[in-house]
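Reviewer 2 asked us to include a model.

Predict the structure of this chain.
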Amino acid sequence: MSEATETKKDKRYGSSSYHYWHNHGKERAESGDTAPMVVPRLVAVEERQEKVRSVKKLSKYSWTDGKKIVSIYIDFPGIGAKEADVTLECKKRSFLLTIRDEPSDHELRLIRLNQKIVGEKSTLRFKENQLVIKLAKDDVETKWYDLFKTTARGVTGSDSDE
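Predicted model (structure tokens):
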């Protein structure tokens, strides 16, 4: 390649182009004139988020209907020593029980309960290997024949759980 052709290429692509540095790489490297190295710079810092814990659903439980309360029994090995790791969140017709355990959490979520409950009066009872949830009935005169509300086909009800 002639010197005139190389000069013509350099002008066409400019001194910062790939062709310029590629064509002159060997000579420039010997003299120390090489392409500038890209210096990494910090763009942003993000806080490390807590690792998301896995959750196992509890599916085995039994229940009974009393005069003022509905009791739900859950067998869980060693639950008597984990009272501080258990939370109960009640709404009008549902509740969420969460048990923090290693390596994963356990939860029982029951929605569309047969009747309304009073979350403030609902309690937890701990035995060595069993947890008893005592849900306070809103209407103590009503008997619960089923734990969940069932409606006839096509019937719409206002079962908002707010």
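The chain is about 15% helix and 30% strand. Residues 3-13 form the longest helix (11 residues). We have added this to the supplementary material.
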